Amino acid sequence: MPTPIGNLGDISKRCLDVLKLCDIMICEDTRVSKNLISLLNSKFELNIAPKEFYALHTHNVEEFFSRFDAVKFENKVCVYASDAGFPCISDPGVDLVRFAQERGISYEVLPGANAALLAAAASGLIEKEFTFLGFLPNTGKERTLAIQNALNSPYPVIVYESPRRVEALVAAVAELDAEREVFAIKEATKKFETKFRGLASELKTTLANSNLNGEWCVVIAGSHAMNTEKISVADVLALDLPPKQKAKLIAKITGEDSKIIYQNLIKKS
Length: 269
Hints:
Number of strands: 8
Distance between the termini: 53 Å
Strand content: 5-15%
Radius of gyration: 22 Å
Order of helices and strands: HEHEHHEHHEHEHEEHEHHH
Strand order of the largest sheet: 4-5-8-6-7
């Protein structure tokens, strides 16, 4: 079940009806879900009162399913809720779906609030196709490569980001492509929702002088230099060129270290 990403009014009547019937609630953080239920009961004058709460988060997936007793859940209304937004997007809800599929357990997914789709619609950068990457790696070469790959995408890319790293993300984009259009929204649907749009170089300056508190969603425009007919790694490998030149070209496409690519090419030759 999706939960509000900020504004309590965004929860649907259908979700509230299901919560009123809920016997067991599975959630990322039981404290967050209990607080949400308290707020919903107060705002809508309801009496939502699940009898049991179970935590299912990134760090306890194996433990949760090893201790899962299907009999305990039979003939009961069980609800899985993420901390905020749509389940199975950057949370372990997908493991619960697969568990149900593998054992023939019936389940429903209710529609509702989603920060990525809200940002897609608000950005003005997306007409149809886009790529969603969730949260990028926090640090190191993995993060650098992820940003490079995002910039290489022919389609707009949507990412979630924390207030601690959003300024660095836009700065990294500006360093690689100062003219790339970027849209960012913080605190979506909340009282202090704020939208930013501009060239990466402009947005870098704007964010440096802004209050960055809150959850962020960033949309990076697709690369104009690339399209669906762009050269592939296979195309480069087929060229009659020395390994070093091939390595440099492949590095441009993938963002990987050309030295590592070169060593791999030598081993295969």
